[in-house]
Design brief:
393 residues; alpha+beta; Enolase-like, domain 1; 4-stranded antiparallel β-sheet
C-alpha cells in the first residue's frame, strides 16, 4: 500500500502491564535541603534567572506543535477517550521551564510490585513536588525468558518505563497548569492539521476511507475495526485508521493480520464507500492483497439481497445508502449543535443557522440533501474548533 496520504506514528503510552496509583505532595524547601543533593550550588544562579511568562507560553506552544502526536497519549476505554500529556512532552517542558531538578527513588520492591517516588524540585520557588507511582512488573515473556541476560534486559526496560512515568507525574504536578495547557493546545492543533491534511473533517473522513476502499477494505470493515459508524467518526478514528495504513506501508502489518486482529463483518457491501458517497476506487490490487480479498470473498455469506437481480439490488442499496448517510450526518450536526449550546455558545449556532438557513432552510435534518448536511457539519465543526482554541487561550 502506498504511503501517500497516510499519517505519522503515534506515541503509545498505554500499557496493560502497569497499574498506577499516585499521590502528589507539595512541600516548601529550605535552601540547604538535601533534596537537591549536589545541585545546591546552583541555587543562587537559578534564583537570579527570571522567567518571562509570555515567552514561556510561546515556547510551550512551540514545543507542543513540534511534538504534535508525540506530545500526548490517547486511547478509548469503555466508550470514553483517555488523553493526557506524554513523557516526551513532560521532559521537553521541564527543559523549557528550566531551573529544576528531577529525581526518582525506589521506596520498596516486593516480587513484581515496585513502589517508586518521583520528585520535581523547582530551584527558583524552592518547592518540592513528589508523586508516588506503583508499578506491577510482568514476568519476562517468550524469547526474553529463555536467556538470563534477556530476562534482565526485560526487567530493566520495565523499570525504565516505570521510572519515566513516575518522573512525568512529578514534572506535570510541578509545572503550572497554564504552561502545560499551552503546550497541549499547540500539540492538538498541529495534530489536527496534520491528520486532516488541509481538509475539513468530513473531507478527511472521505479521503481516508477512500484510500482503504482502493485497497479492498470496505467501509463496513473499517466500522468494525474502530467500533463506530463512519458517519460518527471524529479526528481520533481518522488518525487510528491512518496509522494502520502507515503500518502496512512500512511492512509492519498486512491486510490479513489486520483482519485477523481487528475482525471482519460477516457480510460486507460490494461497494464499501457507498454510504459516504465515495466512488468505487478499487484498482488492480497487488498479489498479496488480491489473495486476501479472494479468500475473504470466498468466505462471505451470501445474503438475500445479493441473490436479487443486479439492477434491483443496486437501486435498493443506493437508496438505503443515501438514507443512512443523511441520517448519520444529521446526527453529527445535532451533536455539534448540542455541544455548542452546552458550552454557552448558542450565538455561534445562530450565526451558522442564519448563514446556511437562507440557502437550505431552518436547521439541518435528514430531509436535507447529503451535500447540504455535510456543509452544515463542516460549518459547525469550524465553530467548535474556534471555541476550543479560544477556551485554551
Amino acid at each position: 500500500m502506498p504511503s501517500d496520504g497516510w499519517g505519522y506514528a503515534p506515541t503509545d503510552e498505554q500499557s496493560t502491564q502497569i497499574a498506577e496509583t499516585s499521590v502528589t505532595t507539595i512541600t516548601p524547601m529550605q535552601p540547604n535541603s538535601t533534596a537537591v543533593g549536589d545541585y545546591g550550588p546552583f541555587l543562587a544562579a537559578a534564583k537570579s534567572r527570571k522567567r518571562d511568562i509570555r515567552e514561556m507560553l510561546t515556547d510551550a506552544q512551540s514545543v507542543g506543535r513540534r511534538l504534535a502526536a508525540d506530545a500526548f497519549y490517547q486511547w478509548r476505554q469503555g466508550g470514553a477517550s483517555i488523553q493526557g500529556p506524554s513523557i516526551k512532552l513532560a521532559y521537553a517542558l521541564a527543559q523549557v521551564w528550566g531551573s529544576c531538578v528531577t529525581q526518582c527513588a525506589i521506596v520498596s520492591q516486593q516480587g513484581g510490585r515496585v513502589h517508586l517516588k518521583g520528585r520535581y524540585v523547582d530551584l527558583q520557588t524552592l518547592a518540592i513536588i513528589e508523586r508516588d507511582y506503583i508499578s506491577h512488573m510482568a514476568p519476562a515473556p517468550g524469547k526474553y525468558a529463555e536467556k538470563p541476560d534477556q530476562a534482565d534486559r526485560w526487567a530493566v526496560m520495565q523499570m525504565q518505563s516505570a521510572v519515566s512515568k513516575a518522573v512525568r507525574g512529578a514534572i506535570l504536578g510541578g509545572l503550572p497548569a497554564w504552561f502545560v495547557d499551552a503546550a497541549m493546545t499547540g500539540a492538538l492543533t498541529e495534530h489536527a492539521e496534520r491528520v486532516k491534511g488541509g481538509r475539513s473533517l468530513p473531507d478527511a473522513i472521505v479521503h481516508v476511507v477512500g484510500l482503504w476502499v482502493k485497497h479492498g477494505v470496505t467501509e463496513a470493515e473499517l466500522e468494525v475495526w474502530v467500533g463506530q459508524i463512519v458517519g460518527l467518526w471524529t479526528l481520533h478514528e481518522v488518525y487510528e485508521v491512518t496509522q494502520w495504513g502507515k503500518a502496512m506501508a512500512a511492512g509492519n502489518e498486512t491486510l490479513a493480520t489486520l483482519r485477523a486482529r481487528l475482525g471482519t463483518p460477516v457480510s460486507t457491501p460490494a461497494k464499501g464507500g457507498a454510504r459516504m458517497g465515495i466512488p468505487d476506487l478499487q484498482t488492480e490490487p497487488t498479489p498479496d492483497i488480491a489473495a486476501d480479498i479472494k479468500a475473504h470473498d470466498e468466505a462471505r455469506v451470501k445474503t438475500s439481497e445479493e441473490m436479487l437481480g443486479e439492477s434491483q439490488a443496486q437501486q435498493g442499496a443506493d437508496k438505503a445508502s443515501e438514507k443512512a448517510a443523511k441520517a448519520s450526518w444529521a446526527h453529527i450536526c445535532k451533536e455539534r449543535i448540542d455541544m455548542l449550546q452546552s458550552a454557552g455558545e448558542g450565538a455561534r449556532v445562530q450565526a451558522v443557522c442564519d448563514e446556511l438557513g437562507r440557502k437550505w432552510g431552518e436547521t439541518p435534518s435528514a430531509r436535507h440533501s447529503l451535500a447540504s448536511l455535510q456543509a452544515w457539519a463542516a460549518a459547525l465543526q469550524a465553530q467548535l474548533d474556534d471555541c476550543e482554541l479560544t477556551h485554551h487561550e
